[in-house]
Design goal:
two-stranded antiparallel sheet; 16 helices; globular; alpha/beta; 424 residues; nine-stranded mixed sheet; single chain
C-alpha cells in the first residue's frame, strides 16, 4: 500500500501536463530531445488514433526544428517505398494520398491505411516540394514480412535494367512459388520436411551485394538492397517461426535494426532518424521480462550498438477508451472497448495520479523512483478485452525502458481506410 502511495505521489511530482493540440506542450516534450541520433516513438496499440496523431506532431517538430531526415515505421518496405516516392515527387502514379495508402493490402492494413496518416503524408509531400533531392525527408518500412512482394520488386527492377542477375532472382522466386504466397505453408515445409529456399536467397543476396555498384541511382540501390535483405531474412523468419517463436521475434527485430542501419547509411553519417513502432519493439527489452526469455528488441539493440546517449525512446499508454483490433489473426478488424487499466498496473497508477493527459521525462534525478517492475499494458493487432489480464501486461522497469512516457487518459479508435485486403 505504501509503495502505491509513493508511486502515485512521485508521478504527480515529476509529470508534465500534455495537450496534444497545444504547441507549448508539444514543444516542451520535443525540447527533451538533445543531440540523439534516433528518436523511437512507441504505441501501446496498433489501433489508437491519439498515438498516431501525437507521433505525427512530434515527427514534424523533429524534422523542422531538429533536422531529422526520415521516418521508419513498423510496416512493409515495398508499400512504404510507394509513400517515399510519392512524398519525394519521384513517382506520379498516384494522384492523392488515399491512392498511395491503398498500397497497403497485406493484413493488418489499418496500421498504415488510415485517416490519421493522410494528414502527415500530405504534410511530408508539401515539406519536400521545394527541397533538393538530398534534403527531402524519406518514409520507409523496416519490417520483415514482405517476402513475396520484395521478390516481385527485385525481379521487376532487374528486368528494367536488364541485369545479368535476373535469372538468379527468378530461380529464387520459383523456389517459393509452390507455396502460393502463404508464409505459414513455407515455414512448415522448411521446418519439418527440409524443403527450404535458403541456398537460392543466399546466392541472390550475394549477387546483389557484389554487383551493387552497377546501379547508378542511389535510391534505387537502397530499394534493391533492402528488398534482397528482406528476402533473406524473411526466409529465415518464416522457417524459424514454426519451431521457435522467441527466435523468430529476434530475427525480426534484428532485421529491423539492419534495415535502419542501411537507411542511415544512405542519408549519411550525420543523419537523424525517427522510428514508429509498438512499445514492445522500441521500449528496451532488458527492462522487461522479455530479457529472461532471451528476447531482444529494436530499442535494446540500438542502445547496445549505438550507445544509450544516442537513442531517445518515447513510450505511450492509455487508461481506457476504444481501439481498432481483430479477435484473431487475419480476420476483419472491429472497434473494441479498452476496459479501465488493471488495478496495480502502470496505467492504473498514472490514472490515480490524475485522470488527465501527461508525460514523464525520466532523468538521472528521478529514474530511481520508477525502476521497480510493474505491469504495463500492451495491445496488439489481435486483442480480446475479456482476457486482457492474462497476456496484455508486460512487467517493466519504466524508467529503464523509456526516456519519456506519454500517458493519454482516454483514447479513441483509429479510422481505417477501406482498401483491398489480402492475408499473406
Amino acid at each position: 500500500m505504501k509503495m502505491s502511495v509513493n508511486l502515485i505521489q512521485s508521478i504527480k511530482e515529476v509529470s508534465n501536463p500534455f495537450h496534444k493540440d497545444e504547441d507549448e506542450d508539444v514543444d516542451a516534450l520535443v525540447s527533451k530531445v538533445k543531440n540523439e541520433t534516433f528518436v523511437l516513438l512507441g504505441e501501446s496499440s496498433h489501433g489508437t488514433s491519439e498515438f498516431y496523431k501525437i507521433r505525427a506532431e512530434l515527427s514534424k517538430k523533429l524534422i523542422t526544428e531538429k533536422g531529422f531526415m526520415y521516418i521508419a515505421v513498423e510496416g512493409d518496405w515495398p508499400a512504404c517505398h510507394q509513400i517515399n516516392n510519392y512524398i519525394k515527387g519521384y513517382d506520379d502514379t498516384f494522384s492523392n494520398t488515399r491512392e498511395v495508402l491503398a498500397s497497403f493490402h497485406r493484413w493488418p492494413t489499418w496500421m498504415w491505411a488510415n485517416e490519421e496518416m493522410i494528414e502527415l503524408i500530405d504534410w511530408l509531400k508539401d515539406y519536400n516540394s521545394n527541397k533538393p533531392n538530398d534534403k527531402k525527408v524519406g518514409f520507409y518500412g523496416i519490417d520483415v514480412y514482405s517476402l513475396w512482394e520484395s521478390i516481385d520488386e527485385i525481379i521487376a527492377y532487374l528486368e528494367k535494367i536488364q541485369s545479368p542477375q535476373i535469372e538468379i532472382a527468378k530461380k529464387a522466386f520459383s523456389c517459393f512459388e509452390p507455396f502460393n504466397r502463404r508464409p505459414e505453408k513455407y515455414g512448415l515445409s522448411a521446418s519439418f520436411y527440409g524443403e527450404d529456399c535458403l541456398n537460392e536467397v543466399t546466392k541472390l543476396l550475394t549477387e546483389i551485394i557484389l554487383n551493387k555498384l552497377t546501379i547508378s541511382d542511389s535510391e534505387d540501390r537502397l530499394n534493391l538492397e533492402v528488398n534482397t535483405m528482406i528476402t533473406a531474412n524473411a526466409e529465415n523468419y518464416y522457417r524459424t517461426m514454426v519451431v521457435n517463436d522467441n527466435e523468430s521475434w529476434n530475427i525480426r527485430d534484428r532485421h529491423m535494426v539492419e534495415v535502419l542501419n542501411k537507411i542511415h547509411e544512405f542519408y549519411g553519417a550525420h543523419a537523424k532518424g525517427i522510428v514508429w513502432e509498438h512499445n514492445t519493439h522500441v521500449g528496451d527489452a532488458r527492462a522487461t521480462d522479455m530479457a529472461t526469455e532471451g528476447v531482444v528488441n529494436v530499442g535494446q539493440l540500438l542502445r547496445e550498438e549505438k550507445g544509450a546517449e544516442t537513442i531517445f525512446i518515447i513510450g505511450f499508454g492509455t487508461h481506457r477508451g476504444t481501439v481498432i483490433a481483430a479477435d484473431e489473426w487475419g480476420v476483419a478488424p472491429e472497434q473494441m472497448i479498452i476496459p479501465p487499466a488493471q488495478t496495480g498496473s502502470w496505467e492504473d497508477f498514472m490514472h490515480k495520479a490524475g485522470p488527465h493527459d501527461k508525460f514523464i521525462h525520466f532523468t538521472k534525478h528521478n529514474r530511481h523512483l520508477f525502476q521497480k517492475p510493474i505491469g504495463h499494458r500492451a495491445i496488439g493487432v489481435v486483442y480480446n478485452p475479456a482476457y486482457e489480464q492474462y497476456g496484455n501486461y508486460v512487467p517493466s522497469a519504466m524508467s529503464n525502458r523509456y526516456d519519456v512516457f506519454i500517458y493519454i487518459n482516454v483514447t479513441n479508435a483509429l479510422h481505417p481506410l477501406t482498401v483491398e485486403e489480402v492475408f499473406l
